[in-house]
């Protein structure tokens, strides 16, 4: 009896699993987007115009918040959140050791100091059981990142914050519509931030939103957002700076695109959930592959479908990232758009290792600051994640459906079932 012939990996000259052009780009553009954007383009105000104020009201209504401020980026919204929580010179803000750099550099923007806490490897989010050990008399707030659209354990974190009188900032830049215990992101902390850049579940090209249910925090954030003024561009401005301010406002054209996409967001999130369910089912039980973990009480938005490789299952020697990189290249060769979301843990980044954000050692040597040292070895779960993960975004998104998800899963299985054919890149010479 003849054995079934093993398929040749595309990276080694075999046929691609997914044809060119089969997976469509995000976001899909339709007449709704054209109507909103063209109306803005033909309007009279292209700075902070009527679409901006409408976007704030509509997003606040969609998410269920009392106040919202549309910004030119999620990073700007994060800085506004730090400021609105009264974090300043010498104050410390706890943040996960693995996230996008903005989750921590926003703390530096107002002379406060990031204090890193390791992640829980299973969820990739801030480990709530490791926060208390990082709290000092200088701690002012906790930034909680809902990474890849899965909310952190906000019950444990907010309980700890109340115990120590700390503010909680939700970095929900990837968390649109995600839920924990049936509450949406943006409703557990004192304030929250969202991003609308190209990759986000709500895309307006660039842009972001600051939300809160606290009027005082909203007013404070709005001052930082517009030159330190106390009146918004739609009010009678006196053009007087009352505090240190930036220019973080959105513009009418971008807000119009965001409004159009918001009308379709619930449908897009449903598509992502359907595609993720197919990937989970199709990849279940695949040896050497660690699937996304969704704890009880969580409803992720599936911003990203993050996979981890278990190199030991393949008998792969250290360093583990070499095998992960070989898998990643082979999966890409099969036609799957995939990549490594973040290659470095935050404490390993130069800005923190050099402790020289503003020059001359500031803010770490500024008056009132404590001597905070960053040892990358103190965050093993974050480092392990960096070396083993790769992720899928576009295949989850509309207009791609479950047929795309099945082909993507088949391509990943093909690579892992033929992992012996992979060529590892040689280690760089020291």
From TrEMBL:
It holds the Pfam family DegT_DnrJ_EryC1. One of its GO terms (biological process) is polysaccharide biosynthetic process. Keywords: Aminotransferase, Pyridoxal phosphate, Transferase. The keyword Transferase applies. GO terms for molecular function: pyridoxal phosphate binding; transaminase activity. Its EC number is 2.6.1.100. It is an enzyme of class 2 (transferase). It comes from the Bacteria. Belongs to the DegT/DnrJ/EryC1 family. This is L-glutamine:2-deoxy-scyllo-inosose aminotransferase. It comes from candidate division TA06 bacterium ADurb.Bin417. The gene is btrR.
């Amino acid at each position: 009896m003849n054995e079934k012939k093993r398929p040749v990996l595309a990276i080694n000259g075999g046929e691609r699993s997914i044809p060119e052009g089969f997976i469509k780009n995000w976001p899909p553009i339709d007449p709704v987007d054209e109507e909103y954007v063209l109306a803005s383009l033909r309007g009279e105000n292209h700075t902070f115009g009527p679409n901006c104020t409408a976007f704030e009201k509509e997003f606040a209504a969609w998410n269920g918040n009392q106040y919202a401020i549309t910004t030119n980026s999620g990073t700007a919204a994060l800085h506004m959140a730090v400021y609105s929580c009264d974090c300043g010179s010498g104050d410390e803000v706890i943040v996960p050791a693995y996230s996008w750099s903005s989750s921590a550099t926003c703390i530096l923007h107002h002379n406060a100091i990031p204090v890193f806490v390791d992640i829980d490897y299973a969820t990739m989010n801030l480990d709530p059981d490791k926060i208390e050990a990082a709290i000092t008399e200088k701690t002012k707030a906790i930034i909680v990142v809902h990474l890849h659209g899965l909310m952190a354990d906000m019950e444990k974190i907010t309980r700890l914050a109340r115990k120590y009188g700390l503010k909680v900032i939700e970095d929900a830049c990837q968390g649109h519509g995600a839920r924990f215990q049936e509450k949406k992101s943006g409703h557990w902390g004192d304030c929250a931030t969202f991003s609308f850049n190209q990759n986000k579940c709500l895309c307006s090209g660039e842009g972001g939103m600051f939300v809160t249910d606290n009027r005082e925090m909203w007013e404070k954030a709005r001052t930082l957002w517009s030159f330190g003024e106390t009146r918004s561009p739609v009010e009678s401005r006196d053009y007087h700076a009352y505090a240190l301010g930036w220019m973080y406002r959105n513009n009418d054209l971008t807000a119009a695109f965001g409004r159009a996409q918001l009308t379709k967001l619930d449908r897009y999130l449903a598509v992502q959930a359907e595609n993720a369910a197919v990937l989970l089912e199709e990849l279940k039980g695949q040896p050497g592959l660690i699937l996304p973990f969704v704890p009880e009480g969580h409803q992720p938005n599936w911003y990203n479908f993050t996979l981890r490789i278990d190199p030991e299952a393949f008998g792969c020697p250290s360093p583990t990232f070499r095998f992960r990189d070989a898998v990643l290249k082979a999966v890409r060769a099969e036609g799957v758009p995939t990549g490594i979301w973040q290659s470095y843990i935050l404490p390993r980044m130069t800005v923190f290792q050099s402790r020289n954000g503003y020059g001359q050692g500031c803010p770490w040597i500024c008056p009132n600051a404590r001597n905070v040292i960053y040892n990358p070895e103190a965050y093993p779960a974050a480092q392990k994640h960096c070396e083993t993960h790769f992720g899928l975004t576009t295949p989850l998104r509309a207009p791609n459906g479950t047929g795309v998800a099945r082909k993507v899963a088949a391509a990943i299985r093909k690579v892992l079932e033929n992992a012996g054919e992979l060529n590892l890149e040689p280690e760089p010479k020291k």
